[in-house]
Write a structure and sequence with these properties.
Elements: H1 2-16, E1 40-42, H2 47-58, E2 62-67, E3 73-78, H3 86-91, H4 97-106, E4 112-115, H5 121-129, E5 134-149, E6 156-157, H6 159-166, E7 184-185, H7 193-202, H8 221-226, E8 232-237, H9 238-243, E9 250-252, E10 254-255, H10 262-266, E11 273-281, H11 289-298, H12 303-309, E12 312-313
Helix pairs in contact: 1-12
Length: 314
């Protein structure tokens, strides 16, 4: 798998033009600079895309570098020496997690966000309280995945089996073709992007029991826990599993016999294909740099950038 990811990233660098002075002509905003660049916030999983967009627009060089410290995933290596002050500028691109990004946009602390999901029910209620409406546009595809310990022999679950596990009706792995071992179904913290997806696209309104297990915090929480817990199951995003952690350290399950892959996500045959969004406040000045950036990210001109980041363009 590590070789496959390396081949993908090297191919993308060649196809998309990763040299530091190569900025695709169509992906431009006249007059944009570090001084007037909109304030942007994002989910943990969309951080690379957010930074890549800024690199392209500001002419900051980068390459894809294997990060051996964190298990060999590929990271965007930004060449901060290209522009004076670029190091401080990129620190100002916020990564407040999905819920935090929506809150900061509603509170007018940032101009634009790139997130792993659309606005949640709680966030919509908060926006209504603040008399704020948002414009949201899906820009890419991702997959909502289920992971277990790498030694778990179960390789696929049906949508119904997943629901039964999280409703407490299926309690032992032997009931779904595994070993005689009690299942530990882990969840994520409320309002996280993953938890919202779990409740809406997987459980579809079914109210899960109040599990006694402490919710796993952060995108890395499920991977850290399931590297050692052979009884556990949890959920995450395909993109995060492929590019932020070492995929071989956990077992990524197929759903209804369909393995989450870029192709299965691209053609939407994977059952839990999801969307990545960009959002802006509806009252944003249409002549502002923030609105110009929003429209550019939503346009076909952004597809190569989205593809290069590792996402599947919508």
């Amino acid at each position: 798998m590590k070789k496959t990811i390396k081949a993908i990233m090297l191919s993308l660098c060649i196809l998309m033009g990763c040299a530091k002075d190569e900025v695709p002509d169509p992906f431009l905003i006249e007059g944009i600079s570090m001084e007037n660049y909109p304030k942007v916030d994002c989910s943990t999983s969309t951080q690379i895309l957010q930074s890549l967009i800024a690199c392209k627009l500001l002419g900051v060089g980068y390459d894809w570098k294997e990060n051996m410290l964190f298990g060999g995933y590929y990271d965007l290596n930004i060449q901060y020496d290209d522009l004076p002050g670029s190091l401080e500028f990129f620190k100002n691109l916020r990564v407040s997690t999905t819920h935090g990004a929506f809150t900061s946009l509603i509170d007018r602390e940032v101009d634009l966000i790139v997130t792993s999901r659309s606005i949640s029910r709680d966030e919509k209620a908060y926006a209504d309280e603040q008399d704020v409406t948002l414009d949201e546009t899906p820009i890419a595809l991702d997959g909502f995945i289920f992971i277990t310990h790498k030694n778990n022999p179960v390789k696929s679950l049906t949508k119904k089996q997943i629901q039964d596990i999280y409703m407490g009706e299926t309690t032992n792995w032997k009931e779904v073709g595994g070993r005689d071992l009690a299942i530990t179904p882990y969840i994520r913290e409320p309002n996280s992007g993953s938890q919202e997806k779990m409740e809406t696209i997987v459980m579809k309104g079914l109210e899960m029991p109040k599990w006694e297990f402490t919710p796993l915090l952060g995108m890395g929480g499920p991977f850290d826990r399931l590297r050692s817990d052979e009884s556990g199951i949890c959920y995450s995003l395909y993109y995060y599993n492929q590019f932020f952690v070492e995929p071989e350290l956990v077992n990524q399950l197929a759903v209804d016999g369909i393995t989450p892959t870029q192709q299965a996500i691209r053609n939407r045959t994977y059952p839990y294909t999801t969307e990545v969004y960009t959002a802006i406040r509806s009252d944003t000045d249409k002549n502002s740099m923030a609105y110009k950036l929003y429209r550019l990210i939503c346009s076909d001109k952004a597809k190569k950038i989205i593809e290069e980041s590792g996402y599947v363009p919508k």
